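1st attempt posting a full record on here, be nice pls
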Amino acid sequence: MTLEAALTTGQIAVARSGLVDYENALKIQRNFHAEIVADERPNTLILLEHPSVYTAGRRTAISDRPTDSTPVIDVDRGGKITWHGPGQLVGYPIVRLANRLDVVGFVRQLETALIKTCEQFSITALRYPDRSGVWLRDEKGDRKIAAIGIRVAKGVTMHGFALNVNPDLAGFSQIVPCGIADADVTSMARELNREITIAEVSPILERELFEVLTKVSA
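the predicted structure (as tokens):
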């Protein structure tokens, strides 16, 4: 993977990587994770997009998988199955947690950054106490706009979040996204009823992530 840009802000380095194959990005995550565990790299946030792919977390049930036998990459994160594709802003914060045991607190901080980013575009998002990710709830029903699934090993995080900016949501139609059958999936473009780009959203999300990650990282 070629990193398009990398700079350090405080304790967090950011790598903006464009469109990257999922399995290649996973190798980079693992390399960064090992380097951070060994104190050879600063805490690093990877921001990218993936070509269309399904990934399944450890809790994925057979019934959650694609109905058309589409291949799925099984990964060592929490959560269930999801889809990634162009138009979805994916972030992998590879950071050493200040409190190694506060995994839930780390997820809540990611949710906060995503919620605040949505607010900047006049989208009112929220969290559910019993469901990870970021949601919209109104007369149209419950809709998930961002998914979160992480893993912590040796006190350092891997995997992260996916914010639906302007993807083709048809990718979710062949699965039960995140194992939740009673809710829909949405995007910023759908909610705003206009085109919106990764380039518009990424700088705002970066700023919000820096604020929360510096609170939870060591």
